[in-house]
Design goal:
With 204 residues, chain A is mainly alpha-helical. Chain A has ten helices and no strands. The chains are: A mainly alpha (204), B alpha+beta (435).
Chain lengths: 204, 435
């Protein structure tokens, strides 16, 4: 590595992975690279946005905004490896999702009545003994998450997937730590019940 | 809290790496937006604006240059007729002028005089008639083409005949003034003829307002990343002088050549070695010995380290910019042999060519994962403002110029404008031209 040789650097600009792209190409607005970037990144970001927003249309909007934000912020990205880029894009998507919720004032949307009733009844009966499957179909799990009120869903997402502490969640969402803890507790209970119900239905 | 961890694990486990395919519409919309918002697209738009503004500047300057000759003559003829006459009288007093000496000495006449319009010379009626006979056909044609030539002719005929008493009075005044000239020693009819010839030659010297020059301008630039400080500029310029030659305007085209290093961060998996992979085996039946003879087909596979490393590579690139200056000048010292004045104005630079000159990076068998540009790319279109003091030395119709200059670039020469402050430069323009 590092020996001098004329004519070889042009080759070096290519990344050997087929269908992939370089950040330089993205910066230059290379359409093929942008398409490859979308094909590889958009599905991951859409899944992230779906966890937060529950609504497909909103999630696609947020995904779009996130991808554009990634392109705008490419210069500030300090690459370590490919994984770090993916993590960075996901983080941008999370922030965009939070912004979307904040704009639409959905942090305070703690309940829809039916879910609230279910959660409250579940709070009394502890499903501790309920068996959880090792794995569950992502589509169904997302459906369960989507049934959570937006506030609960956001807290759960930040805690479980983004590894935020309750203090950080409280600061991010502008709520108290206790509220964060309560909402997480209720969200877990609801999800556990929903997942147990699903696995029961699935079992013959 | 055990169950809580379980549900967390289930969530993470089930949704890790989850991907949802977005709609085609979404994909199309993203691509359209992304292409239009990338720096290249923005720059293309920016470049278009720069080109249009550059062309407008050039057109405006062209229009001004075309318009100025007429307006300049009018101004001179209206403002300075008497002065010119007086100067002629003075020169006539000081020495005996003949047509030959006048034509010889034309070059020594101060430039301000060369621009004086022909009709400002006052002559008496008879002289005018004689001189009109003496004038060559070419001269007549030339006079008639100039707006200022008409009053000159009108002195001879139309003023007296067609205009009334007032005009006659004016004419008489002029006659009286010219009679003074006649009374001076050394002024006679041939001299009037000579002054007419001189005036007509002065008129034909109108093209002297134009000049063309070739120049070379080495430039030392600062506030620029990894670039050679020295930039070479060379080109040609056309200059037009107006308002008694003191003011000037020049434009042209030049090429600016600069070279610099561009640093890249190459993320790669190091090559560790190779191993043989068995692709296939074929067997051949040995008929005599009743056994199979195998043939092994193998290929070499490279082994790369799974951990990534980063190496920094440098590429030496050359940039050629096309420069279009529009400069204004004012000469505060004007001598027959030399001039000194200010020159200043904007210059439009457009990137014409960019090519790598040398490489200092060879990945060898290492597997490249990613290459990131550290040094930002150079901007494609830019404006800078420059000014300097011009020293011109005139030799037999040629002019040699030396012009120390300072330039300030309106924005960074890099695409990422926050990378560096706007550059500035010092240069010296050396030019030779025809004046």
């Amino acid at each position: 590595m590092g020996s001098n040789s004329n004519g070889s650097a042009n080759k070096s600009v290519r990344i050997e992975k087929p269908g992939s792209y370089s950040l330089g190409q993205l910066r230059q607005g290379d359409r093929k690279a942008l398409a490859a970037f979308f094909d590889q990144t958009a599905p991951l970001l859409l899944a992230v946005a779906m966890r937060y927003l529950a609504n497909r249309q909103d999630a696609e909007d947020v995904m779009q905004d996130s991808l554009l934000k990634v392109l705008q912020s490419l210069d500030s990205f300090k690459p370590m490896n490919e994984k770090s880029f993916e993590a960075w894009t996901k983080r941008i998507c999370v922030n965009q999702s939070l912004n979307f919720l904040r704009k639409n004032n959905r942090f305070n949307e703690v309940s829809n009545l039916e879910t609230e009733r279910i959660i409250n009844t579940q709070a009394d009966e502890d499903p501790e003994d309920a068996e959880l499957p090792a794995q569950i179909e992502p589509g169904h799990l997302l459906e369960c998450i989507a049934r959570l009120p937006s506030g609960y869903r956001t807290v759960m997402n930040l805690y479980v997937f983004e590894s935020f502490s309750h203090k950080e969640i409280a600061e991010t969402l502008g709520i108290s730590e206790n509220t964060s803890k309560t909402q997480l507790h209720k969200a877990r209970k609801f999800l556990k019940a929903a997942v147990s119900e699903y696995s029961t239905i699935k079992m013959p | 809290m055990k169950e809580n961890h379980e549900i967390d694990k289930l969530l993470r486990g089930s949704l890790a790496g989850n991907a949802i395919q977005p709609s085609d519409e979404s994909r199309k919309m993203f691509l359209d937006k992304a292409v239009s918002m990338t720096p290249v697209a923005k720059q293309t738009h920016h470049r278009k604006i720069m080109w249009v503004s550059g062309i407008i500047i050039l057109l405006l300057s062209g229009i001004i240059l075309l318009w100025l000759p007429d307006s300049g003559d009018k101004t001179d003829s209206l403002n300075t007729p008497l002065t010119t006459t007086e100067k002629f009288v003075e020169s006539a007093e000081s020495e005996n002028i003949t047509p030959e000496t006048l034509s010889d000495e034309k070059g020594a006449i101060p430039p301000i005089l060369l621009n004086e319009p022909y009709p400002s010379i006052s002559l008496n009626k008879e002289d005018t008639q004689n001189q009109s006979n003496l004038l060559e056909p070419d001269d007549k044609v030339q006079h008639s083409t100039h707006a200022q030539a008409a009053p000159m002719d009108s002195i001879s005929e139309t003023t007296a005949e067609e205009q009334g008493t007032e005009n006659e009075t004016t004419f008489e005044k002029e006659v009286a003034e010219t009679s003074e000239i006649e009374q001076k020693p050394g002024i006679d009819a041939p001299e009037s003829e000579a002054s007419l010839k001189l005036a007509s030659e002065m008129k034909t010297d109108h093209h002297r307002n134009w000049g063309i020059s070739l120049f070379y301008r080495p430039e030392m630039i600062f506030n620029i990343i990894e670039n050679d400080k020295l930039i070479h500029n060379a080109g040609f310029e056309i200059q037009y002088r107006f308002f008694g030659d003191r003011y000037s305007m020049r434009t042209g085209a030049a090429l600016s050549v600069s070279k610099g290093y561009y640093e890249y961060a190459a993320v790669y998996n190091q090559f560790l070695g190779t191993y043989s992979v068995l692709d296939s085996i074929s067997f051949t039946l040995a008929a005599n010995n009743f056994h199979l003879i195998p043939t092994y087909y193998k290929s070499e596979k490279d082994v790369h380290d799974t951990s990534t490393k980063t190496d920094y590579a440098k590429v030496f690139k050359q940039h050629i910019y096309l420069q279009i200056p529009l400069e204004f000048g004012y000469d505060f010292i004007m001598q027959p042999k030399y001039r000194m004045g200010l020159r200043f104005g904007p210059t439009l630079s457009v990137l014409a060519n960019r090519k790598p000159v040398s490489f200092a990076f060879d990945p060898g068998k290492d597997k490249l994962i990613q290459i990131n540009r550290i040094t930002p790319e150079r901007i494609k279109t830019n404006f800078h403002f420059s000014g300097g003091i011009n020293y011109s030395y005139l030799i037999n119709g040629f002019v040699v110029e030396a012009e120390p200059r300072v330039a300030y670039y309106f924005n960074s020469v890099y695409e990422k404008s926050n990378t560096s402050s706007p550059p500035f430069s010092f240069s010296i323009r050396i030019a030779i031209g025809i004046n």
